[in-house]
């Protein structure tokens, strides 16, 4: 049985359809990714799963039980790292963690132990006595993550936890996700950064405009664009004649030109090198280098929606 089963969620705000029928399953022990651009409906989906808002339609089953009918069972086993950081700036990191611990019913020695435990995980021990207003974005984010871990949840939901923070904190957070998962925690991770989702997630659902447009492992998703290839060619110069000759190759889908670098997208072109060299040979242009790009989720998204993930 899936740990979490999301069934046909729908939610609108006035005339905005934020979520238009979302379904997916999260298995115990996996890092499940929701990948989509800003406005795709990730946070709305997360808020419904976390029982913060009610859907217009659909349900979420936690261990087979509706979280809308009986939210308690999920709530005590769930940690949520919301997209918007919510901390008390004039309190220290330690005091913030203590406050969140109290919300979970943790007090006394146990609370102290748990604060130590999570400070170790988020790597912030030496800064706990400083006021949060003195923290960098990355530090605040780490406290936010720590707050979600105090009660040792079985399921952790993280909503774009690396947006707007320094690379060091970002890497630390990504490693923390993998480490928590290795110790058995199930994680739902949302992001609009395809590299993060590729790096972390066992299975991924790609979202756009309130819908899931494709789901699978990274490799299964890449299969969607099998046959599509992107090739970067650097020339000594680029002329209209050259571009016309490349455009003329019938399996070339798209040509992007940045100065002397031309990126072409093709499908099923086994003869591409031969064809390119032949066409270029008919001009006075020389090839400096040719680079075949590895397919990634960005291209899957582009293929499915016709737009870039980061517009
Ligand atoms: N509280 C709200 N009131 C009105 N519109 C909202 C609200 N929350 C989200 N939306 C809209 O719903 C859509 C989905 O938003 P959201 O779930 O935040 O997407 P994401 O997290 O993928 O960026 C967006 O068009 C957003 O503007
Ligand atoms: Mg969001």
TrEMBL record:
PROSITE patterns from the UniProt entry: ABC_TRANSPORTER_1, ABC_TRANSPORTER_2
Any one GO molecular function term: ATP hydrolysis activity
Primary location recorded for the protein, binned into one broad class: membrane
GO biological process: daunorubicin transport; doxorubicin transport
Annotated Gene Ontology cellular component terms: plasma membrane
Pfam family name, one: ABC_tran
Keywords associated with the record: ATP-binding, Nucleotide-binding, Transport
Membrane topology: Peripheral membrane protein
Cell location: Cell membrane
ABC transporter domain ranges (all copies): 4-234
PANTHER family given in the database record: LINEARMYCIN RESISTANCE ATP-BINDING PROTEIN LNRL
Family: Belongs to the ABC transporter superfamily. Drug exporter-1 (DrugE1) (TC 3.A.1.105) family.
Protein name per UniProt: ABC-2 type transport system ATP-binding protein
Species whose genome carries this gene: Maledivibacter halophilus
